[in-house]
Design brief:
Chain lengths: 113, 113
C-alpha cells in the first residue's frame, strides 16, 4: 500500500471463520498499524509484548478488553493502551463483527542487539 | 491517566479559540498518543518529523490532510500514515469541529545518541 494515502480501515478488514483475522495497514521499523477482526464469539487470548506498547482503537462492534484478572466492556469509539509487558486481549461478546485498529510501537528495547 | 483503562478519546478533546488544541492520552519512550482538535477553519500547517512515523485516525468532523503539493479530503473513519520525513498537516474545512487521533512512534533513530 502506498503511503501517505488516506484509507478507510474497515475496507481492509479480513475476517476468518476459524479465528481472529488480521491485516496490516502500515509497517516500519518503528510502527506497525493493523486490524484485528473478530466474528461474534472470537477472541484474542491474553498475551503481552516485551518492549512494545500497543494502542487499540475500536472501530466497529462491541466486546471486552481482556486484562489480567478483569474484562472491560468496550464498543466503537473506545481506545485502550496496553503498555509494554502488560497482558491484554480482546473478546467479541456482541452479535455483530468487532473491528479494532491495533497500533504497535517498538522502541529500541524491542530491537535485536 | 492510569493505563490500561478504556477511554473515549472525544471526552478528552481540548479546543482552543486561537489555534489547534492538543491533548496527550498516553506517552512512553516508544509511543505518543494524543488528540489534535480543530475548530472550523483551523489548521496544523505542513510539517515533518525526522525519525518519527505518525498515524492519524479521524474521529469526528471532516477536512483535508495536507501533503506536499496536494490536499486529500477526509472525514471521520479515515486514517492516514505519514512516514518519517514526509510533510503532512491538517485543515478543518468543515462547519463543525474536527477531532483527530494522532499517534507518533519514535524508533531508535529519533532518540538522542
Amino acid at each position: 500500500m502506498d503511503h501517505p494515502c488516506a484509507i478507510r480501515p474497515a475496507e481492509h478488514a479480513v475476517y476468518r471463520p476459524d479465528k481472529m483475522g488480521k491485516s496490516t495497514l502500515f509497517e516500519s521499523p518503528r510502527l506497525l498499524v493493523g486490524l484485528n477482526c473478530f466474528e461474534p464469539g472470537q477472541e484474542h487470548a491474553l498475551h503481552a509484548h516485551a518492549g512494545l506498547d500497543k494502542l487499540y482503537q475500536v472501530l466497529e462492534g462491541q466486546g471486552e478488553f481482556l486484562l489480567a484478572g478483569r474484562a472491560i466492556p468496550m464498543a466503537a469509539g473506545v481506545m485502550l493502551v496496553a503498555p509494554a509487558g502488560v497482558p491484554h486481549g480482546i473478546r467479541n461478546t456482541g452479535t455483530t463483527r468487532l473491528l479494532v485498529l491495533a497500533v504497535l510501537a517498538q522502541g529500541p528495547s524491542a530491537l535485536p542487539d
